[in-house]
Automatic annotation (TrEMBL):
UniProt-listed Gene3D superfamilies: 3.30.1490.70, DNA ligase/mRNA capping enzyme, Nucleic acid-binding proteins
Keywords: Ligase
Protein name: DNA ligase (ATP)
Keyword Iron: no
NCBIfam families: NHEJ_ligase_lig
The family this protein is said to belong to: Belongs to the ATP-dependent DNA ligase family.
EC number: 6.5.1.1
Domain of life: Bacteria
Domain ATP-dependent DNA ligase family profile: 126-250
Length: 331
């Protein structure tokens, strides 16, 4: 009598445990975009990094530093419940857009400071750009192209609080040029064949747009280092006068810091050149200008992330940034 052959059952793939938290992959700053077909590009969003955890028991919104900000982002959390999956981790950036569609960190800070009930519908947006976990499967060792392929049908086409961060397959240098001309913060380059690894990684690169102008030095704040400066106080022209545009505390060596203080101490101001009440400010006659590289302007007319690049004596031919220029070339 022939033996009856019994088929061996193929075990189903066991679900992988969902991480309680994933340290984010962080892009490395470089000077120019990489070249090659393995790279794709995205807009660099100027906001808060956020991981949205969808679980059977609820939704959590976790910041880059590991803080639970679920209550701050009620609309995002509500929409995440409707994405059609029992469990997933979506990586992305929370932003607020200005009237020209650019992410504005100052607007975001003010929006996050409001009570959730005061948020305008669509004001705070979560741009999703990566999928780390989906319905029992940890996707972090999959290539980015595969993770994006799985993410796209979940969020693409949405126009509410959760949206898809589009990817651009183009020449990186050309895309970067266009991004800067549009007043964006910069671009992100990502290797399509790379897995997701936490920490600062060379598989993700960030290239920032920078602006450079000259501003009048109206004083300084002392450093904790004896004889040095902690921050330069800067001003721009407004009509026939000057208006304070913020302080700059980086970009010089220790030696240059001491030399700057000596220069400014030699030209003390009898009266403050700008309207500024700041404890510890040492005012100088507005005879020197600083060349400053900066990222953008804040909503209240201050320089964002300024860095000192040089100093020269102010004269009639010196091109000093005017507040009128801000109206002609907004952020």
């Amino acid at each position: 009598m022939a033996k009856t052959l019994r088929k061996k059952s193929v075990p189903a793939t066991l679900p992988e445990p969902m991480p309680r938290r994933v340290d984010p992959c962080v892009a490395t700053l470089v000077d120019k975009p990489p070249k090659g077909p393995e790279w794709a590009f995205e807009v660099k969003w100027d906001g808060y990094r956020l991981a949205v955890h969808v679980e059977p028991g609820g939704v959590r919104a976790i910041t880059r530093g590991g803080y639970d900000w679920t209550k701050k982002f009620g609309l995002i959390v509500a929409e995440a419940r409707e994405l059609g999956h029992a469990s997933m981790i979506i990586d992305g950036e929370v932003v607020v857009l200005d009237d020209q569609g650019r992410s504005d960190f100052g607007l975001l800070q003010r929006a996050v400071g409001k009570k959730p009930s005061l948020h305008d519908v669509g004001e705070i947006i979560f741009y999703a750009f990566d999928l780390l976990y989906l319905d029992g499967q940890d996707l972090r060792m999959h290539p980015l192209s595969e993770r994006r392929r799985l993410l796209e049908p979940i969020v693409v086409g949405r126009t509410g609080a959760i949206r898809f961060s589009e990817e651009v397959h183009a020449d990186g240098a050309e895309f970067f040029k266009i991004a800067c001309e549009m007043g964006l913060e910069g671009i992100i380059a990502k290797r399509q064949d790379a897995p997701y690894r936490s920490g600062r990684r060379p598989e993700w690169l960030k290239i920032k747009c920078a602006r450079r102008d000259t501003f009048v030095i109206v004083g300084y704040e002392r450093s904790t280092v004896p004889g040095a400066i902690g921050r330069l106080l800067l001003a721009a022209k407004k009509g026939d006068g000057l208006v304070y545009v913020g302080g700059c505390g980086t970009g010089w060596s220790n030696k240059e810091s001491v030399q700057l203080r000596e220069l400014l101490d030699a030209i003390p101001a009898a009266h403050p050149p700008v309207s500024l009440k700041r404890k510890g400010a040492v005012f100088a006659e507005p005879l020197l200008v600083a060349e400053v590289e900066y990222r953008a302007w804040t909503q209240d007319g201050k320089l964002r992330h300024p860095s000192f690049k040089g100093v020269k004596v102010r004269n009639d031919d010196t091109r000093v940034f005017s507040i009128d220029d801000l109206a002609d070339n907004p952020q």
